[in-house]
Amino acid sequence: MATAQVAATAPPATHAGRFSPSMRGWFARIGVLAGLFALLMWVTAVVPGYWADRISLAVIFAIIGISLNIVLGYVGQVSLGHHGFVGIAAFVAAYYVTEQAGCTPETGCTITAFSTGMVVAAASGALAAGLLGIVALRIKGLYLALITLSYGFVAETSIFEIPSLTRAGSGMPAARPTAFDSDTEFAFLTFAFLALVIYLDWRLIRSKVGRAILSLKHSEPVASSYGINVTAFKILAFVMSGLFAGIGGGLYAFRLENVVANDFQFTSSLLWVLMVVVGGLGNRTGVIIGSAFFAVFPFLVELIPGAEHFFNDTLSRNISYLPILIGPALAIITIIQFPGGIAEQISPITRWLRGERFSLHPEGHGSHSKKDTRKAMLAKLGLDKNGEGEATEAPTEEIKQDSEPVVQGQPEEPHGSAGHDDTKEGVS
Amino acid sequence: MTAVLEVKNTGIRFGGLVALDDVNVSVPEWEIVGLIGPNGAGKTTLFNCIMGAYTPNTGQVFYRGRDISLLPTHRRTALGIGRTFQNIGLIRGLTVVENYMVAQHSRINYGSLSGILGSPRVLAEERKLRANAMEVLDFIGLAHLANSHLDGLPYGTLKLIEVGSVLATDPELLLLDEPSSGMGPDEAHEFGERLLELRKTLNLTVLMIEHHVPLVVGVCDYVYVLNFGKLLTEGKPNDVRRHPEVIAAYLGGEVDHEGTQEAAGVTA
């Protein structure tokens, strides 16, 4: 009732003073976004098949990154068992299309069989992660990390060893749908799933669900006194993470077309955690770029003349080990020097695209006070999880206050008079 | 008429320590009831029992005649019990306005699933939430801080922001845990005025833990005194203030009828 009464009596809030781009400004921003999108699509369409395959790997990594970001960035817990969820989902998808829907590598799959396979993959990922969420209700931090690690190993050594599910060493085939059989077509399909995951993650964080999950990370007692069901939302966070991991796993299966247990090992989970940290905890755009970078990095290095020879023959190491070698180094540099990760480095661009003024130093605005720097650092460290949104809003507020000191006084006025009216109403 | 809040025979022990023992507290409609007592007397523990953060070993909690002893905290919030914390109960990572949006959680008119899937109704509801949050901010006079981060704001302001965040949960009963801590005498006085005004405007009932004696005397209709988990005495603020046992409990001395006034001055 109280809020309703407040609503009836208090003057409506205004957001005057916030910078908003002109019509031309908006066209420029939309144009840049559309251009980037078109470039990405064009590259995917024209590159040879084996590069399209690598692009789909990057997209799948991005989906897994978004999945892990929910646990790591929003909930604030470490999951070292994500290869378990992804692997389970991959095998379930492969098992469904091959054993239940009767797809074979020769005939391919129908769209219906593929879609159902993706749905059961997502569901199995969600279920697997939901179980972990129940554990996470009681255990946190280092010990939860340990539990997730064991979870991954248990999946590796038990579930991935079930012959009827994984066909042991030879692997379970997962035929692609006939309409998306070529690597290029399949890459476009993965983009569609990435769009879906981005949309869901965006809605998640911009709705009460995301706010509830972010609150849990900071203080469970306060969150529950705000009316948030701590148990439900913590499990929901893990379920959403598992759902996305399941989508990633399902696509992984169809990308490989033959799933073997060796594809899902602890090193994958470790790499995924590193790529999320380097991308920028809690920041979707950063995580996507970081994930894609880690996925295609070894292939880009391969392009350097002599690099392949150096790795394969001189070091006798497969070049695909490269990310796990440079990953820790990048993560250390990120944590010490650039806590916001890639997300922070590209923030002038992402801020501009969101409709802010272009500025290379969004936090400072000339006068770098210690407080501002600390605030920015906290934001970067992922202690404020809503990511760019907030970090961007605070500085605009500062401009507003600097340039128009009158604004600060204004709210007092209507409040005072409203207060008196209220009093009268209350009495009469 | 039944009281808004009734705590009956509540007791809780942590291991060998009896934190609360057979405590009875009743908060009638539209009253501001004070809860005082020395440090470690069990005041915040009682709040935790009322909100469901702790499960008492004995006794029940009634809200408007309904036994809520077994409800989880978030259900009690939904019923209309709002609570502030001794150390600021705000979500540090969010801005002020976002805190107020989270605080409206139990009043949000869409399910989690439709929130994730998104629909025009969700977007409309989100706009309404932000508008409500801004209205509460206007109401407590802090609209200019809407997009500020909490870090770096003065303690007194944070306390006020916290009270606002509890108002955003749309409560009928307010549990305030030392609202005036960190405020100077003038600010505390102003806070008292504001609380009286709030009660008038929003029809609030308040149970308040408070050490600041002038504030307690100024705004409370009735006062309970806790000491070592037991109810020491209860009554009108001015009577309780002169109660020899209360003075003894605060000063840790013997009951001394001569030094009452002086001792009351010290506690103030």
Features:
heterodimer; A: mainly alpha; ABC transporter involved in vitamin B12 uptake, BtuC; 2 domains; two-stranded antiparallel sheet; 72% helix; globular; B: 268 residues; alpha/beta; Rossmann fold; 4-stranded antiparallel β-sheet; 41% helix
Layout of SSEs?
The complex is a heterodimer of chains A (428) and B (268).
Chain A: H1 2-9, H2 23-46, H3 49-75, H4 82-100, H5 111-136, H6 141-157, H7 163-166, E1 172-173, H8 183-206, H9 208-218, H10 220-225, H11 230-256, E2 258-259, H12 266-279, H13 284-303, H14 307-314, H15 322-337, H16 341-345, H17 347-353, H18 370-380, H19 388-403, H20 406-409, H21 412-427
Antiparallel strand pairs in A: 1-2
Helix pairs in contact in A: 3-8, 3-11, 3-12, 3-13, 4-5, 4-6, 4-11, 5-11, 8-9, 8-11, 9-11, 12-13, 12-15
Chain B: E1 5-14, E2 17-27, E3 32-36, H1 43-51, E4 58-63, E5 66-67, H2 73-79, E6 81-83, H3 96-103, H4 112-117, H5 120-139, H6 155-168, E7 173-177, H7 185-202, E8 205-209, H8 213-219, E9 222-227, E10 230-235, H9 237-242, H10 244-251, H11 260-267
Parallel strand pairs in B: 3-8, 3-9, 6-7, 7-8
Antiparallel strand pairs in B: 1-2, 1-4, 4-5, 9-10
Helix pairs in contact in B: 3-5, 3-6, 5-6, 7-8, 10-11
Brief overview:
Chain A has 428 residues and is an all-alpha fold. Chain A has helices at residues 2-9, 23-46, 49-75, 82-100, 111-136, 141-157, 163-166, 183-206, 208-218, 220-225, 230-256, 266-279, 284-303, 307-314, 322-337, 341-345, 347-353, 370-380, 388-403, 406-409, 412-427, and strands at residues 172-173, 258-259. In chain A, helix 4 (82-100) crosses helix 11 and helix 12 (266-279) runs parallel beside helix 15 (322-337).
